[in-house]
Amino acid sequence: xxxxxxxxxxxxxxxxxxxxxxxxxxxxxxxxGSDGLELGLNQIYSAILMDVIMPGLTGIEVCxxxxxxxxxxPILLFSALDTVEDKVYGLEAGADDYLTKPFDLNELLARLxxxxxxxxxxxxxxxxxxxxxxxxxxxxxxxxxxxxxxELTKKEFRLLEYFVQNxxxxxxxxxxxxxxxxxxxxxGTNIVEVYVNYLRNKLDKGFDKKFIxxxxxxxxxxxxx
Length: 225
Hints:
The chain is α/β, with parallel strands linked by helices. It is about 45% helix and about 20% strand.
């Protein structure tokens, strides 16, 4: 599970990162709110752990902006601010949980796992997703457009699923290769272009609305706003 950890105090950052990695989490870090916001908007994480008090953008501001942009990643805020009003303010900004300092690392891990489980169950219950005339069925791993089956292979469905999860974002070939194929992108291969082509031919061919668009020199964008 991939965790984004946003904390400006280096000692705290190192301790939390070490604890998470020892418990088999993959951890990406940001030292300030601005970097945390950029990562949260452009990468997929199982959860985000974030301090409230930081220079520049606070954890509250980052949380609120992520939610306003439609990011539903579970967010756990932690802070020395421990009044009821502080907690309510954080939760109303869109946080899923709020932990006050000092906290026990075992409690942090338990709350983190609970948030991830809850999100996983919520995602599982949403067996279908409808986007205009496109419908994805996550149980059968099938898709239709305008009620016509798309006849996707497993890898094509996974590619479409990743595009849908990142609707409106520019995705580089490297990101797509890493998330869909679980490999580092090799500039000597055109596997991403080939499969995007396959998917386009089944998804967009014959329709006026094209869901997948190329951003030259940058990658692809799905259903741009």
